[in-house]
Request: fold
Amino acid sequence: MFDKDPLTALEAMTRAQWLAFAPLAFQATAVMRDRGVLAALADAAPTKGRDIDEVAAATGLSVYATRVLLEAGLGLHIVWRRDGFYHLGKLGRFLLDDEMTGVNFDFTRDVCYRAAAHLDASLREGRPVGLKELGPWATLYEGLSVLQEPARRSWHAFDHFHSDQAFPAVHERLAVDPPARLLDVGCNNGKWAQLCLERFPTMELGLADLPAQLERAHERLRDAGLDDRTTGHPVNLLDPASALPPGYGLIWMSQFLDCFSEEQIVSILGKVRAALPPGGRLWILELFWDRQRFEAAAFSLQQTSLYFSCVANGNSQMYDSPVFFGLLERAGFEIGTLTDGLGGFHTLLECRVRA
Ligand SMILES: C[S@@+](CC[C@H](N)C(=O)[O-])C[C@H]1O[C@@H](n2cnc3c(N)ncnc32)[C@H](O)[C@@H]1O
Reply:
């Protein structure tokens, strides 16, 4: 993938126009999805389609609004038209029904869209200048627990849609040799912890995260009646004086290290090394754009890096795996087993301290 220029000149010219009008095309697509234009076409008799007046009547939009949206949809190949009747295309069908597309779409609209206008400044200054569109924090993580809707819902749906799919496969591996005590670093809302506590009835869980986020995880586990086997460790791992608690045979980091810069990752891994007992395991679940089977997945991750630049913290990304592996090496870890494609897209790195 990405080792040659795959476009003809005509394709390149066409794609350049898609990009030139991308913000308008994006918003038009969102309106067509959310105001029922796509659904109105999906409901039409299969071969007949619907004309503009029928779509306007079905959606409550004006004839003018319906016409500009449907005409924009033609150029985007979201819909197609014959004899004045509009039909839903395959692309429209994915936009309407595919869960992953919906999650990615909402994340871009609710979390990234306005912030993206500050990408240039973010990259120049090495901080998430666009974050001010969501709240007054230095990094998104400081605001995660108080984020307003719909950004909050869309952020969590995006974060968890992807990791949730990999968790069952990781549990199968964990079941082969489960640790007595597992430390979940960057536990977020406690979803993984809950699954572990339910699946492994004697396992004790340590939860490490920023204090406000940790409170959310505790709430979830309390509600599920599972908090008697958990210990909270509030920590800001960017604080040079911070440390991770000892005594956990396996340290788990899922979609966590991509939240940090290269130097920060090496520093955090140093804290992991200091906390691990002899023979202790470090398991990392990450998404690497260069290890994807499909270009659409690689593309989504490459663009997600820009969210880290202008919204999250200004200095992290979804990594190219050789860059990431170099950081593990620098921190004194080696990868014992590497498994790609968990849940479709994730890579599990089972690591140990290098002898
Ligand atoms: C992308 S989420 C990971 C979610 C979860 N592990 C998963 O697999 O879905 C990153 C987590 O790291 C936490 N985090 C970010 N910066 C941190 C820091 N400096 N110290 C501790 N935790 C931090 C955030 O609060 C958030 O819960």
Summary: Residues 141, 144, 159-160, 163, 186, 188, 192, 209-210, 213, 235-238, 254-256, 259 surround S-adenosylmethionine (CB under 6 Å).
